[in-house]
Design goal:
Strand order of the largest sheet: 1-2-3-6-5-4
Helix content: 10-25%
Largest sheet: 6 strands, antiparallel, barrel
Number of domains: 4
CATH architecture of the largest domain: Roll
Structural class: alpha+beta
Distance between the termini: 108 Å
Low-confidence stretches: 15-27, 67-78
CATH topology of the largest domain: Pdz3 Domain
Number of strands: 26
Shape: globular
Length: 442
């Protein structure tokens, strides 16, 4: 009995499919060395992707309930807890200790952090340290060791036009790879949290969720931590150079924080009339009004009356911008452009740590107060009668400066570091159990 043609066709199709699945076929296999598909980018991705992690952060917030919720008897004093999750990326830089580098803004205000590996494993992570001024955070993976890691490269050697690779978690799509070139180095941008300097600009696609992920060179070295994009156009992404991130990481490991730096000068904003009287075409820069002895500014020959215009070619428009720029430095020498007696000149100096002892002395001189630790606040211990804070009384408590909560002397000194050049400061003071606001005019 002859076999129907339709059965023959089905049998042939089955046999073809069977032998295709058995036979080795390079088109279905991952590219391997020697294959024309095995490009340098493929080699780097295969080498490094297992050390790139996805980070899930959960924040628990209280939320007011609706009248219907309250009517039907939901407890917790009219409030309920709501979880909010955010996504980001990170890179394992020390597999033995389970250390992960990411952005500070990825894990900000998180109550719980989970790290997800490419092989499907999930681990809790704790914050080893974070520096919002640098947008760098260091996480420690709990209960894991001997993990894959990516070697740290040298971002100082990067050149415009060099190919770079970004791996991250954009919009929740795990381990997404994009490529591009280094567009420029040494960029400075303004973010919600402050000023970021010395950034790598690239056109490798970076989207929400890529933050904290690695920027890699063609040798598989970590050269940057992706941090931001310019929303005004496509193909403009920024990464923190690994040389800077490494210094921040080392400080977080050893000291738990990054030291604040200063040059040893006082300054005020340069208004249009003052700029005109000095022969300047624009009021760019700050007017140096004082130089402290035995500081980098004094040793470099800076003088009251000098106009500080740029730091490392970044324009300085006012005192706050100057302080924000210093907050993003790691202690490398800085090149300053100054204007004096109708001439511009440059000088190089190295900032030094603005430690607590110097801060306390400067606060006594500038604000005219000395403080001690109280219960969840700082207490006024001494007030200079001729100082700008002479309205304060011994025993007053300062609970906020510039809208930021102050609970300890460390909080107070940090607030002074950030506001030490301000012309006026808003204080929240408690006296005899009653809180009020006071303005400190300098």
């Amino acid at each position: 009995m002859p076999i129907p043609l339709s059965h023959c066709l089905r049998l042939c199709a089955f046999l073809c499919l069977f032998f295709v699945t058995l036979a080795p076929n390079a088109s279905f296999a991952a590219p391997s060395p020697g294959s024309p598909r095995y490009t340098p980018v493929v080699a780097v991705v295969q080498k490094c992707q297992s050390a790139v992690v996805n980070i899930t952060c959960t924040q628990i917030r209280g939320q007011a309930q609706s009248p219907l919720d309250l009517f039907f008897g939901i407890p917790e004093f009219g409030r309920r807890m709501q979880k909010r999750a955010s996504l980001g990326s990170g890179v394992i830089v020390d597999g033995r200790r389970g250390l992960v580098l990411t952005n500070a803004h990825v894990i900000a205000n998180s109550d719980a952090i989970m790290v997800h590996l490419q092989d499907g494993r999930n681990f809790k992570a704790s914050v080893r340290g974070a520096e919002p001024d640098f947008d760098i955070a260091l996480l420690a993976i709990e209960g894991a060791s001997n993990l894959p890691s990516i070697p740290l490269g040298n971002s100082q050697s990067l050149s415009p036009g060099e190919t770079v690779i970004a791996i991250g978690n954009p919009f929740g799509f795990s381990h997404t790879v994009t490529t591009g070139v280094v567009s420029a180095v040494g960029r400075t941008i303004q973010t919600k949290s402050g000023t970021l300097t010395d950034l790598i600009q690239s056109d490798a696609a970076i989207n929400p969720g890529n933050s904290g992920g690695p920027l890699l060179d063609l040798e598989g070295n970590l050269v940057g931590i992706n941090t931001a994009v310019d929303a005004r156009g496509e193909g403009i992404g920024f990464a923190i150079p690994i040389n800077k991130a490494k210094r921040v990481m080392e400080s977080l490991v050893h000291d738990g924080k990054m030291a604040s730096l200063w040059l040893g000068l006082l300054a005020e904003d340069l208004d249009g009339q003052t700029a005109w009287s000095l022969g300047l075409m624009a009021n760019q820069g700050i007017l140096i009004t004082g130089v402290y002895g035995h500081t980098p500014a004094a040793e470099a020959g800076l003088m009251p009356g000098d106009i500080l215009e740029t730091i490392n070619d970044t324009p300085i428009r006012d005192r706050r911008e100057y302080l924000n720029l210093l907050r993003n430095q790691t202690g490398d020498p800085l090149t300053l452009t100054l204007y004096r007696d109708g001439k511009r000149f440059q000088t190089t100096l190295t900032p030094v740590a603005l430690d607590d002892q110097i801060c306390e002395q400067l606060m006594k001189e500038r604000w005219g107060i000395m403080v001690g630790q109280g219960r969840k606040a700082v207490v006024i211990k001494q007030v200079h009668s001729a100082g700008p804070a002479n309205f304060l009384r011994i025993g007053d408590q300062i609970i906020a400066i510039g809208g930021k909560r102050v609970q300890s002397i460390a909080d107070m000194l940090q607030a002074f570091r950030q506001e030490r050049m301000a012309g006026q400061i808003l204080l929240q003071v408690v006296r005899n159990g009653r809180a009020y606001y006071a303005r400190l005019l300098l």
